[in-house]
Amino acid sequence: MTAPAGVTVRVPAKVNVQLAVGAARPDGFHDLANVFLAVSLYDEVTATPADELTITCEGPDADKVPLDRTNLAARAAELLAARHGISPAVHLHIAKDIPVAGGMAGGSADGAGALLACDALWGLDTSRDVLLEICAELGSDVPFSLVGGAALGIGRGEQLTGLPVGGAFHWVFAVADGGLSTPAVYGEFDRLTEGVDVPEPTASPVLLEALRAGDTTALAGALANDLQAAALSLRPSLAATLTAGTEAGALAALVSGSGPTTAFLVKDAEAAESVAAALTASGTCRTARAATSPAPGATVLPSA
Ligand code: C5P
């Protein structure tokens, strides 16, 4: 008997070029105006038939990835199987390149990747709308991992509208030692804004126009992350990383999502190389990675 074929899906990381955060809602979530941009750092999720749901992971940070049912990839397989009344009999292998717990939606990427891989493996042909519904159930950032490109997320970030992007943007991402818990960063945001009248989050027209025009200088001036103060409060050492990247020539620097990965917008690929080298040499981060945007969403790769 020949070995059963697997399905591999490649899924991008994201950076939030604008993350406007409103006050905490009664359900504990925060209303957002979340401008997502997919970047060219990818995880790959491979689904193969198995007797029961199992997960393995490879990559430099593999030891930090949970291999139980708390992994969003496992939950994606379970939710999809439940929708179709079948058993989630699958082995999921994650080749992890996106920083873990870094504010780049690596866990969400694996959820979206597993969903698409299982759908193809099981020949379910689930509609895009249902896949997006399952993504939203998995987590606020998961729908964007499926869709990729650029999008504005409202609600808790899961209600997406695609955005036009007029050109490539170049980035460097500085990966910190250790992760930051997203709920802890939102909790710190609540603490820092206690007694403050937090405005309704809205997308910046200047930022949306910079994306549409592919204008790096304009985007650099418009980058904004309302979680940055909270991430810096929990991890003050990130300030030195932001300074090191700016001093090395980045046009702008900000915390990526809830951190602790920091993002540096640079002029071109050459600047990305020199800023990445300077950040690595600065000793203020574990490693630095160059990437471009926009990147496509979750994609089934041709079988080898
Ligand atoms: O949706 P997700 O599971 O990724 O959210 C993780 C945590 O991040 C939530 O439990 C909540 O504490 C926080 N969060 C939030 N508001 C959002 C998205 C996430 O408060 N819009």
From TrEMBL:
<dbReference type="GO" id="GO:0050515">
    <property type="term" value="F:4-(cytidine 5'-diphospho)-2-C-methyl-D-erythritol kinase activity"/>
</dbReference>
<dbReference type="InterPro" id="IPR013750">
    <property type="entry name" value="GHMP_kinase_C_dom"/>
</dbReference>
<keyword id="KW-0418">Kinase</keyword>
<comment type="function">
    <text>Catalyzes the phosphorylation of the position 2 hydroxy group of 4-diphosphocytidyl-2C-methyl-D-erythritol.</text>
</comment>
<keyword id="KW-0547">Nucleotide-binding</keyword>
<keyword id="KW-0808">Transferase</keyword>
<dbReference type="InterPro" id="IPR006204">
    <property type="entry name" value="GHMP_kinase_N_dom"/>
</dbReference>
<feature type="active site">
    <location>
        <position position="141"/>
    </location>
</feature>
<dbReference type="Pfam" id="PF08544">
    <property type="entry name" value="GHMP_kinases_C"/>
</dbReference>
<dbReference type="InterPro" id="IPR020568">
    <property type="entry name" value="Ribosomal_Su5_D2-typ_SF"/>
</dbReference>
<protein>
    <recommendedName>
        <fullName>4-diphosphocytidyl-2-C-methyl-D-erythritol kinase</fullName>
        <ecNumber>2.7.1.148</ecNumber>
    </recommendedName>
</protein>
<feature type="domain" description="GHMP kinase C-terminal">
    <location>
        <begin position="207"/>
        <end position="282"/>
    </location>
</feature>
<feature type="domain" description="GHMP kinase N-terminal">
    <location>
        <begin position="71"/>
        <end position="149"/>
    </location>
</feature>
<keyword id="KW-0067">ATP-binding</keyword>
<comment type="similarity">
    <text>Belongs to the GHMP kinase family. IspE subfamily.</text>
</comment>
<feature type="binding site">
    <location>
        <begin position="99"/>
        <end position="109"/>
    </location>
    <ligand>
        <name>ATP</name>
    </ligand>
</feature>
<dbReference type="InterPro" id="IPR014721">
    <property type="entry name" value="Ribsml_uS5_D2-typ_fold_subgr"/>
</dbReference>
<feature type="active site">
    <location>
        <position position="14"/>
    </location>
</feature>
<dbReference type="InterPro" id="IPR004424">
    <property type="entry name" value="IspE"/>
</dbReference>
<keyword id="KW-0414">Isoprene biosynthesis</keyword>
<comment type="pathway">
    <text>Isoprenoid biosynthesis; isopentenyl diphosphate biosynthesis via DXP pathway; isopentenyl diphosphate from 1-deoxy-D-xylulose 5-phosphate: step 3/6.</text>
</comment>
<dbReference type="Pfam" id="PF00288">
    <property type="entry name" value="GHMP_kinases_N"/>
</dbReference>
<dbReference type="InterPro" id="IPR036554">
    <property type="entry name" value="GHMP_kinase_C_sf"/>
</dbReference>
